[in-house]
Amino acid sequence: MRKLVAALSAACAFALALAAYGDAAAGAGFSASLSAGEMVPAVKASGNGSFSATLKGYLLSFKLSFSHLSGPAVGASLGFGPKGKAGHLTIPLCAPCKSPVTTGVGVDKSLITALRQHLLFVVVRTQKHPNGEIRGQIQ
Do the domain assignments include residue 130? Predict the structure, then answer.
């Protein structure tokens, strides 16, 4: 009986480990909707955008799209901070940027933790709004 319980326990542990590995191998998905209304401090603009990403290991592969900006996008970055707070920019995504942007950036453990805790945002900057014209919190 003990051998059977031990064998079943080992099989369950193996199945759970395999499922966890499968989830990690598939990559975790993240997204954000960008708008001027999310900027802190607020800006008067009518641009919008979208961000979708997958995380595989330490590589964040993403697609960033935007439109209706006040002018060409001079840059886009990942920023660290909660929704509704100013935060600070951490990783450049592109400069200058043409929509859509499809590429990847390396991230470290602290940024992966912040990403999973929804403490990262995407901001797109223009000449008229050098601190950011549109922003979206990554979910």
Answer: yes
Number of domains comprising the chain = 1
Of residues 66 and 9, the one with the higher pLDDT is 66
CATH classification of the domain holding 116: 2.60.40
Query: Closest by alpha carbon to 51, among 67, 31, 35, 36?
Result: 31
Q: Which pTM value belongs to this model?
A: 0.80
* Tens-digit pLDDT profile for residues 10-28: 333 333 333 333 334 456 7
| Residue 100, in any domain of the structure | yes
HEC profile of the chain: CHHHHHHHHHHHHHHHHHHHHHHHHHCEEEEEEEEHHHCCCCCCCCCEEEEEEEEECCEEEEEEEEECCCCCEEEEEEEECCCCCCCEEEEEEECCECCCEEEEEECCHHHHHHHHCCCEEEEEEECCCCCCCEEEECC
Q: In which domain, by residue range, is 96 found?
A: 27-137
